[in-house]
Structure formats: structure tokens, C-alpha cells
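A student in our group prepared the protein record below, which I am reviewing. What it holds is a sequence and that sequence's fold in C-alpha cell form. My question to you is simply how this chain folds and whether the C-alpha cells agree. Do not assume that whoever made the record got everything right. I have pasted the whole thing underneath without changing anything:
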Amino acid sequence: MPDITKKVRVRFAPSPTGGLHLGGVRTVLFNYLFARKHGGKFILRIEDTDQNRYVEGAEHYILDCLAWCGLNPDEGPKNGGPFAPYRQSERKANYRIYAEQLIRDGYAYYAFDTTEELDEQRQITPNFRYGHENRSFMRNSLNLTEEETKALLDQGIQYVIRIKVPTDETLHFFDMIRGDVSFDTNLVDDKVLLKADGMPTYHLAVVVDDYFMKISHAFRGEEWLPSAPVHILLWEYLGWKADMPEWVHLPLILKPDGNGKLSKRDGDRLGFPVYAMNWKDPKTGETTRGFREMGYLPEAFVNMLALLGWNDGTEQEIFSINELIEKFSIERVSKAGAKFDFEKAKWFNHEYIKKSEVAAIKDQVFTILKEKGVQIANDEYFIKVLSAVKERMIFLQDFWEQASFFFEQPVDYDLNAVKPKWADTKTEFFFELIKTYEAISGSENWETINLAKLFKALAEQKDIKPGELMLPFRVMLVGGKFGPGVFDIAVLIEKEETISRIQKALIAFTED
């Protein structure tokens, strides 16, 4: 059974190879929530031992993503900690010590097989796996004498170190989500532990680092389940089994149709991001769009991710980070994969924008205006506009679409919404409305209630239903069938601009 009485120390250990998938951020989140709930520590460890896949700038990008989400580690490569260094490439010498210990104890061996020899085996044997079925006729220290092995090592012949997986055994371990999990060792191959360049593989490095960093609970995606028997054997073979962390294999985030793991390609195909933030590949120059740049609020992103595979057992969907910390429990994490629903993701962001204080989002929205080349001389006006439209925004980037008419007159009009029911009586009405509104004196009288009252009174006088005039008036001011209350719009753009737009639109409405 799991032990959560020991001091909680959890870690997120990404490889700096590219953009941070939302599945990775969810792993961070569950680590973070668990640590905070149990008064523990959350550690960031960079697993950069695969130098062929290392991408410049990826580590900094990961740190930026965590900072944007508000999920900052207690220890890591940036802020240090008592178990530094927190980059595996800086701990290289440590791994060889334990790889060679495993050889001395009979749990691992030197393998001198060349790439060509392994490729030949793959051609001979479909789905070739280096293990108990074939290790006896491969070129390794299990089949060579001590003298032959030493001679090859002295000559500098390249080798890897592989774990020697036992045959005919069943390994068991307890997973905090899945319960008892078992593996037949005959189905597990002899994984490489130390590569020819002296760097460890994930299998060795994760065990050594988790031991020395005193990791209590290991959260990772369920795609790592097939590797679990190798890791369990290493904990045992290195004599550390009593300190082995509790295992937590998280369910996958699935494609919207539930058929397989959600990938970047799925996001590209279906039109939504799968990365937390924009990622620019330094090799290709290609930029992959992220949730942040789409106009997603970090609080909404975190809330949305929390409910992908977890719930608190109630109907509640909106949670603050403190509520998530309070209510989070491994017992409520599902074993089944969670389908990603972009429409639901949009709903979360819409809800958060609606309840956000204008002051909390105005700087980000102001940046959007600057990108459009709009100069704002009056900050008070900008804040009023944002207050008027924010409940209509799904993403922050929607501000321009929802509010551009507050900063510039419409160029085009939705004439299809107006012309079929247009009549001379309506033309006369709006000419009279111009005179009525021109007669208003004092800015204190140019307010919503007064404008609406005069509008409806004139409609009654002309014997036209106000409802037949409201849509044309909206199109005059906005250009289409959208926006906040039409009289609220008129108040914000003020008297002169309102009249100017009515005059301009009348020309377009009455042209043949």
C-alpha cells in the first residue's frame, strides 16, 4: 500500500527537446498539487542525457512555461537546492559508478555489439529485442571471458552497459492509481543503462537521481508503464528498494475522438494548440502556437488541465489553485485516458475572462491593440471598452474582433441583415434621430437611459416598432450583428462619432 506519511518530495523531469505538451504540464500540476497538499517539495530536474535530441533554448522555455502557469519548483536548475546539480548532464560521473557496480554484482553486462550487428539481427528477427532469448549468442561480457572483455575495454572498443533481466519471474508493484501491477520478466528486454558516449539512459539516471534526491512519489505518464519493471529491478539490484518512491502512472490525454494519445499533429489538424506556450524550433524556424499566445489565461489553463483525468466527486468545475490543492487526491484520478475537448477548454477560458478584473488583463489586451497599430490617448476609455466587451471574449485575442469598432469606424456593413427590410420610413426615422441626438446638450445627458428613451419615443411617433430599428442602428455603429448594448456603444463613442456613423451608414443603406 502507498505510504504518504513520509516526507513528500516529487519531481518533474522533462527532456529539453522541444515544446511542452499539455500532458507534461498536467504532470507538473499533479506533482505540484500533491506536494502542496502534503507540505512537501516540488523539484524540477532536467533530463538532458540524450545529447542527440537536446535542443538549445528548450530548458529556458520549460521554465517560462512553469512560471506562466504559476507552478514554480521549490528546487531546480534555476533556483538550486540541497541536491544540486539538477541537470543530469552535470551528474554524468555519478551514473557510471552505479552501472559498473551492477556489472560487478552480476546484474548488468558490457555489450560490444556494433550498430551493424544489431541491424543484422533486426533483419533476421522481426521485433528483435535484446534479452534472455538471444543474449547468449551476442557479443557481450556474458559470453566472453574476463580476459577477452578486459582486452576489448583496454582497446577502447565501444560498448554499452545493459541490465540483465532475470527469466521466468513475475514482478509486482503497487501503483497509487492502478493498484497492483505485475509483469512477466520474459517479456522485458535488457535495456541499455549506459550508452557508448558515457551518458546514462533514462532508465539508470531516473533511478539514481530519484534515490539521491530522496523522491517519495514518482508521477509520470502511463506510457512509462512498460519501463517500470526495469526500474523496479534497478531499485532492488542497487540495494535501494526500501527507498523506492511510490508509483503514480497518470492516464493519457487522448485525441477528441478518444482514439489514441493527443499529439501536436492532432492539434495542427484540428486547429487548436497542444503546447503551453509558443515554441519556435531553432533548427527549422517553425513556430508552433501555444495556449498563452492564443489568449488563454494561465488560471484557466491550470483549471482545465486539472479536470483532465481528475474530479473532486462533485459537479464543481471552476477551481482556484488553492481549492485544487485542498481537494486534490490521487484516489480521484481516473485510470482511463481523458479525451481533450477544445470546446470545453474554450469554455473554461471564457468563464475566467468573464470573472477577471479588468486590471488583471488590461496589459495583455493593450498589447493586442499596439500590435494593431492603435494609439490610445485615453486609458480610461480603453478600460471602459474592455469592461463592455470582456464577457463576450473567449480568448484575449478576441478583443479586437469584439471591440475594433470602438477605435475606428466600420468600413463594411452587414447589408444582408438590413436591406431586405429597409424602407423609406426607416430612412426618415434615422434622419430625425440625428436631429434628436444633435439637440442633446451636455455630456451628462448623453447617457444610456436618455438615448434609449428618445429612440423609443421617436419610433412610437413614426409608428415603427423599436425592434425593427435596433438592428439597423447596431449595424450603423458596429458594422454587424454583434457587440454590447447599442446605446452603451453610443455613450462610449460619444455624440459626434455616433451621429457621424449614422450619416455614413445611411448612404450605404439607401444606395441601390
The chain has a mean pLDDT of 95.
